[in-house]
């Protein structure tokens, strides 16, 4: 695996040290291929991460979200059994997989079915950041801070 020296980027990009740090940590991932995962979009503001964690029980998996970083950790419990394998193709090693989440993305659900850990995410913008429609009113301008009175519609009563 190639390693890149990002030191010149730190010197010339004042204020972008978080971006450079993310690039450097992405380049440093040791076990980048395990466990395999998919990221898909399930709607306009909905996403899903699927991790293949065959052989892990729900109590051996932990998920934590801290400062827009989703961390999924798997620690295999030692059973104390002494097994002799002729071929060992199933990876039963501990892992830690991290996903950088965008602002306002929250985890809505996580479930483990048939060795596939599915994490549903949703982007929830606060009301202050959502676009809102502003109605444009027409009429005469105010004079000296007083608005001109509007004509009241006439209401006719029908005789019974």
Secondary-structure topology with pairs:
Blueprint: H1 7-12, H2 17-27, E1 37-41, E2 46-52, E3 61-66, E4 69-74, E5 95-100, E6 105-113, E7 116-123
Antiparallel strand pairs: 1-2, 2-7, 3-4, 4-5, 6-7
Radius of gyration: 29 Å
Which term fits the overall shape?
elongated
| H/E element order | HHEEEEEEE
Helix content: 10-25%
CATH top level of the largest domain? Mainly Beta
Q: Tell me which CATH architecture of the largest domain applies here.
A: Sandwich
Could you walk me through the main structural features you see in this protein, from its secondary elements to its overall organization?
- This protein has 2 domains: 1-30, no CATH class; 34-128, Sandwich (Immunoglobulin-like).
- It starts with 6 loop residues before the first helix and ends in a 37-residue tail after the last strand.
- It has helices at residues 7-12, 17-27; strands at residues 37-41, 46-52, 61-66, 69-74, 95-100, 105-113, 116-123.
- The chain is mostly beta strands.
- The chain is built from 2 helices and 7 strands.
- The mean pLDDT is 79.
- A 4-stranded antiparallel β-sheet has the order 1-2-7-6, with no helix packed on it. It has a 3-stranded antiparallel β-sheet with strand order 3-4-5, with no helix packed on it.
- The protein is elongated and about 100 Å long.
- Helices cover 11% and strands 29% of the residues.
